[in-house]
Every structure is written in structure tokens, then in C-alpha cells.
């Protein structure tokens, strides 16, 4: 679910940067940084939201 949300945000931000303003590329950078945070630390802001608010758990335990 986390990567589906990240992919959707990247696609929407890329489309908005092409149509509205190139400043939407900052959102793409933000998503990329959060994905690296997930890889390096094991969590990112969205993963904490998915756990706490929606009660979703990782598919694979670490």
C-alpha cells in the first residue's frame, strides 16, 4: 500500500509539474527522500500514518 501511495503521488506531481508549475517537482523529491528513509531507517512519515491511523501492519516482519 505504501508504494502504491508513493507511486500515485509521484505520477500526480509529475503531471502537475508539466501542466501547472515546475515547483511540483519538489513533491517528487520529497517522496523520493521518504522512500530512502524507509529503506535506511525502516519507516517514513507515511508508514507511521498507515500504522497508527489505519492500523495497517507491514506484510513482512523485520
Uncertain runs with pLDDT below 50, 5 residues or more? none
The shape, in one word, is elongated
Number of domains: 1
Instruction: Report the C-alpha radius of gyration, rounded.
Output: 13 Å
Total DSSP helices: 3
**DSSP, total strands:** 0
Mean pLDDT: 86
Helical content class: 55-70%
Q: Please summarize the sheet with the most strands.
A: none
Report the structural category.
mainly alpha
Strand content: under 5%
Distance between the termini: 17 Å
SSE succession: HHH
Describe the protein's topology.
Elements (H helix, E strand, L loop, with lengths): L1 H18 L5 H17 L3 H8 L10
Helix pairs in contact: 1-2
Short description:
The chain has 62 residues and is mainly α.
Question: What do these coordinates show?
Answer:
This protein has one domain. Helix 1 packs antiparallel against helix 2. The longest helix is centred in the N-terminal third of the chain and has 18 residues. It has about 60 residues and is mainly α. It is built from three helices and no strands. Helix content is about 70%, strand content about 0%.
Amino acid at each position: 500500500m505504501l508504494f502504491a501511495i508513493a507511486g500515485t503521488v509521484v505520477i500526480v506531481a509529475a503531471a502537475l509539474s508539466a501542466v501547472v508549475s515546475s515547483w511540483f517537482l519538489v513533491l517528487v523529491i520529497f517522496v523520493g527522500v521518504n522512500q530512502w528513509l524507509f529503506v535506511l531507517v525502516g519507516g517514513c512519515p507515511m508508514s507511521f500514518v498507515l500504522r497508527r491511523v489505519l492500523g495497517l501492519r507491514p506484510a513482512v516482519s523485520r
